[in-house]
């Protein structure tokens, strides 16, 4: 079954055009990819594998069963996103906003979450083997859940998952 195409919001198209005009007027080099806004959309099962999604906004978006394996999500915002059964294997989530997101049954194996913000994030039945949570603020209940599942060493940073979480 073919996947529906992404449909950026009209605001995102307007802002991308405005940025393009300003870049041209000021004689600046053109940006390679303007950050897009996919907030409040339904993107169930969408394939983002290996995509450059730096700075993209997915706030309050339903991304159940989506595939982000190997994607570059540095600085992206997934505030309040529904991420049940989503594949983030090997994804780069450094400096991402994950607050209030729901990671249930998600695969975060070998993902780098360094400096991400995830204080009110819900983690349930997640796979985190080899994930790096360095400097990620977490609530006590989330930390307990993650420490129970923590194992492995991140292949990018060389840090043990348990150490990055501060598990005892």
Account of the protein in words:
The chain has 168 residues and is mainly α. Helices cover 19% and strands 4% of the residues. The chain has a two-stranded parallel ribbon with strand order 1-2. The longest helix is centred in the N-terminal third of the chain and has 17 residues, at 10-26. The chain is globular, with a radius of gyration of 17 Å. The termini are far apart. 40% of the residues are buried.
Q: What's the rounded overall pLDDT mean?
A: 88
Gyration radius, to the nearest Å? 17 Å
Q: Helix and strand string, N-terminal first?
A: HEEHH
Q: Note the beta-strand portion.
A: under 5%
Set out the fold topology.
Blueprint: H1 10-26, E1 102-104, E2 122-124, H2 140-149, H3 161-165
Parallel strand pairs: 1-2
Which tags fit this structure?
about 170 residues; 2 strands; mainly alpha; 3 helices; about 5% strand
Task: Provide a compact summary of the structure.
Helices cover 19% and strands 4% of the residues. With 168 residues, it is mainly alpha-helical. A two-stranded parallel ribbon has the order 1-2.
